[in-house]
Every structure is written in C-alpha cells, then in structure tokens.
Specification:
The longest helix is centred in the middle third of the chain and has 32 residues. The model has no long low-confidence stretch (mean pLDDT 94). The protein is built from 1 helix and no strands. The chain starts with 5 loop residues before the first helix and ends with a helix. 78% of the residues lie in helices and 0% in strands. The protein is mainly alpha-helical.
Length: 41
C-alpha cells in the first residue's frame, strides 16, 4: 500500500491539514476583502 510508517503518515496528515486550513483561511479573507471592495452580487 504505502512505504510510510503509521507515525510518518500521522505526521504527514498533520502537516497537510495545517496547510489546508491555512490556505482556506487565506482564501476566505481574500474573498471577503474583494467582496468589501467590489461586491459581485
């Protein structure tokens, strides 16, 4: 299946989730600022 051990997989998952949450946070803030500047509806 995978060459990662369980601890390596958990570490990778933790980093992936942290990065995903950070990306989503930035995207939400960017969309909010854009909407405040120029509402699209």
């Amino acid at each position: 299946m995978s060459s990662l051990s369980e601890s390596e997989a958990k570490e990778f998952h933790s980093a992936y989730v942290t990065g995903f949450i950070g990306f989503m946070g930035i995207a939400i803030v960017a969309h909010y600022l854009l909407y405040v500047w120029k509402p699209w509806f």
